Amino acid sequence: MKQILSAGVAIAIATVGFAEGMMPDDVVYSEYGEVEASLSGQPGDAAAGLEIMVSRGKGNCIACHQVTALEEYPFHGEVGPSLDGVGEYRTAAELRGIIANAKMTYEGTIMPAFYRASGFNRPGNAFTGKAAEGELSPLLTAQEIEDVVAYLQTLKD
Predict the structure, then answer these.
(1) Which is nearest to 82 in space by CA: 69, 91, 92?
(2) What is the dihedral of CA 5, 6, 8, 13, to 10 degrees?
(3) What is the pLDDT of residues 81-131, one digit of tens each?
(4) Which of 5, 31, 61, 143 could in theory staple to 40 by disulfide, Cβ–Cβ 3.0 to 4.6 A?
């Protein structure tokens, strides 16, 4: 009986892990930073991706990037490149890699890694003694990354 129960628990845990998508530390980047495999195993939703792009509590991509298709939303930034037409010249794998961890493609970028949970420099202890301990949650979920990729693929000239 214990073996059957243990097997059932193991299957349930594996199913939950799969449903949430690939874990940040398991993402495989190519030599140039692309991520070929979907992080969630599900297709992205472009409408949800748009909401993440403009949400100050989520991706807030327009804080750094200008996007003409989103000009109805205020406060576009000029730190990052314009994303106009990005769906024509970047593949889904390239976009996924850049959003998940742009430093894998552009070593010196200041763009945050939206799907990373470890390996951070934590200088807070030197200044305040209050640096976060342990593992951190990624800024976006695996599905949210896929949603942003789906939206960016709609941006064509």
Answers:
(1) 69
(2) 140
(3) 999 999 999 999 999 999 999 999 999 999 999 999 888 766 677 777 777
(4) 143
